[in-house]
Amino acid sequence: MLALPEPQKNGRQAEQALGRSRGGFSTKIHVTVDGLGNPLRLQLTAGQRHDIIKAHDLVVALDFDYLIADRSYGAQDFVDELTANGTEPVIPPRQNAKEPREYDAWRYRERHLIECFIGKIKHFRRVFSRFDKLARRYLGCLHLASTLIWLR
């Protein structure tokens, strides 16, 4: 049996997806869900990191017609990348945008699927309290919770 090396427990906080934000010490969970609200991809970052840094990793090699996301994923480079791939971005512009771009407000209502999924995984005590010190183990717990949600 092949033994994997044990990850170091004294890694830096950013490597373990831990960071300070307005709410305190936290981890951000970035999620891609399908049209039924079932998870497709999960990624972690430190609490103070911006959402756009994981945007490309969440959508690469997925085939879809629309991408529904919140304002934090509305960087112009990312929107241009989506339109070049033939995907319609349903991302509202920033509130202080000089030239706000158009988006389908009716379709944007479906973003609640992501919020519902986040609410479902928070029913798992180990997920919402993050007992795991290592990001790899925490992501494993998220994958387990996601699998149980898929099986419902």
Report on this structure:
The protein has 152 residues and is α+β, with helices and mostly antiparallel strands. It is built from 6 helices and 5 strands, in the order E-E-E-H-E-H-E-H-H-H-H. Strand 4 (66-68), helix 2 and strand 5 form a beta-alpha-beta unit. The longest helix is centred in the C-terminal third of the chain and has 17 residues, at 135-151.
Summarize the amount of helix as a percent range: 25-40%
The rounded Rg comes to 17 Å
* Largest sheet report: 3 strands, antiparallel
Q: How would you name the oligomeric state of the polypeptide chains in this document?
A: single chain
Structural class: alpha+beta
User: Unreliable runs, pLDDT <50, ≥5 residues?
Assistant: none
- How many helices does DSSP assign? 6
Strand content: 15-25%
Please list the strands of the largest sheet in the order they lie side by side. 1-2-3
Map the helices and strands.
Layout: E1 19-21, E2 24-33, E3 39-46, H1 55-59, E4 66-68, H2 76-84, E5 88-90, H3 105-108, H4 112-121, H5 125-129, H6 135-151
Concise structural overview:
By secondary structure, the protein is an alpha+beta fold.
Which terms would index this structure?
alpha+beta, 3-stranded antiparallel β-sheet, two-stranded parallel ribbon, 18% strand
